[in-house]
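Q: What structure does this chain adopt?
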Amino acid sequence: MRFSRFAFALNLCTCAAFADSPRDRVEELLKQMTLEEKIGQLTQVGGVAFSPDMPKPEEEIRKGHAGSILWVSKTADINRLQKIAIEESRLKIPLIFGLDVIHGFKTMFPMPLALAASWDPALIEQVQTVAAREARAAGIAWTFAPMVDIARDARWGRIIEGAGEDPFLGAAVARAQVRGFQGTNLSASDRMLACAKHFAAYGAAEGGRDYESVFMSESQMRNVYLPPFQAALEAGVGTFMSAYMDLNDVPATGNAFLLQDVLRREWKFKGFVVSDAFAVGDLVTHGFAADRTDAARRAFTAGVDMDMASGTFINELPALVKAGKVPMASIDAAVREILTAKVRLGLFERPYADEALAKRVTGVPAHRQLARVAAQRAAVLLRNEGGLLPLSKDSRSVAVIGPLAESKRDLLTMWAGFGFDPSDTVTIAQGIREKLGAAGHVEYAPGVQIAKQYSSMLDEFIKDGEKPEVWSEARAKEEFTKAVETAKRAGTIVMVLGELSGMDGESASQASLQLPGRQEELLKAVVATGKPIVLVLVNGRPLDIEWAAEHVPAILVAWHPGTEGGNAVADLLYGDANPGGKLPVTWPRNAGQAPIYYAHNRSHQPEDDPKFKSRYWDEPSSPLYPFGYGLSYTQFTFSDLKATPNEVTAQVQNSGSLAGDQVVQLYLHQRSGSASRPVRELKGFERVTLEPGEKRTVRFQLGSNELRYWSAARHDWVEDAADFDVWVGPDSNASLRGAFKRTP
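A:
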């Protein structure tokens, strides 16, 4: 499809496209717009109707009642709808097409929590650069990512979409993602507008139940939940998204403290805020707004600039403006930011997607290779007793057992649902077969079926043929027995267990963290064969693997690893890649410990008091695996820690026989101050690659960002004169210790 840029520019009324500056162009357009056209720019319309009463996008676009379209991913559909805006609407203002480009567009990378497990911001930036390149070529100019919500409860399904529990790591990941999506020039053909979501504290939902209320002190919010959002802002993020839940009895979508006091006034944010889907209308559901008119007024005046999909703004705001209840100046200010974003994106010059370019840059070998490397670097080795891993390629008799071993869809997440074809995904069994080649003898048996179907959120995108057949009782017994017999014949067993892709993500919280279905029963039966066993977990959250952690010699967390997941897992199992990922979350023993996180405060009778063993009478309070934990096929030692208020240095050495990666982590504890401080807080990290015997000095700079905190006693940020404990090591239990004193 070819269009003349010159002809398009001439079509703009009064030649606004030829104005002297982007701001002039926006002001020219504002002068020409009717009230309804202005509010149209504040309206995002779904390209897919999730309910029969949703308006068709074509008519809304023609009337100038749509500024943005979401849930459309095919280039032909994007250009068709854009053509209506350019040729059939009065002012011919281009649309922004937005989509949940979360961890890839056509080339799917590991899920975001897995990317955080790489502890590699440079890699994460590369990944999102590729995601932006593929999506923008297809016509998607805006992604609803990154999600930077802190999550400390593994039951919450959307834990998969963020960077885990820690604000320092979360801030680093947020900055990397924004840089990857947006680059330095939004108008470039391979960049897109990013959106920091969900503002704010959405990940602290009560009980780990998605959409549930949050009750939180201001000190906890500012010290833990807001830093990744502020980091995204400092990296230049162009938009924010409000959250669904109540925050201290005020829904986030109508919360002026968040959207005005913090975001606009304190942080000086200049972009625009979009609601989450249907969230403006849902202010009525919350019992916050009296009706949809009240919902429109309260959301808009609180600071929401664009209504995602609920139709509340376009239907209710015109009357509110005419009645003097919403100032026209406020409408103009919101429209101005949205039009400015369109100018920055270059949509007035290049409104259409280039289908030929999309074909050239989508799923190319270089992108798939990056996906493979990302999955390698994201995997976390939890256990490797007796050095079982890496496996020898000479041991060619392998049984690959488990319901996820031959699954393509379940190596992805619900966010791969928008028109993505999972057929190009490499399964773990396939990766092992290709690794061993023709001489290998690889037998596969699913053993059990994960009976729970995909979540309702994912059902919209799963074809009937992709949904699992439900086994009869007789078939289930037969498959279980077959899997155990297959294991008995093999020299080595690789078990692939975990969760279906629809068991985590939005609207997919879990009360239990146990392996779903009969997977643990199968695991125990196979372990009883006495054969060497490697457990590969395909998962979106920490799972209850307490039994496996005692009885299975090797455990590798692959997460939902993406398009090249099977090849990456095979690389790791057979030593062509060395695991170096680290947990971005504390791994609980079971759901009864949730929420659990390392950066808790000390309290009366602390757990490290030898006279006080646990806060539970029936099991330890400690996690199964600590935050930051992850093994390698080589070993590392730490030494020579030196600490001052401005800098901490330490030496790390590869003391093993293989080259490998170690994530050197710095933790601080302030012993006293105007408020109690956590027992440890991550304040620096660096992933380093070392050859056998190689030693390196790692330096961490300390400044105000690392030493200050929000004090409830002072109602402000403070930097106390105090004594600090310092630890450097491989995880949050690091034992190499030092100290320094910060003076006034």
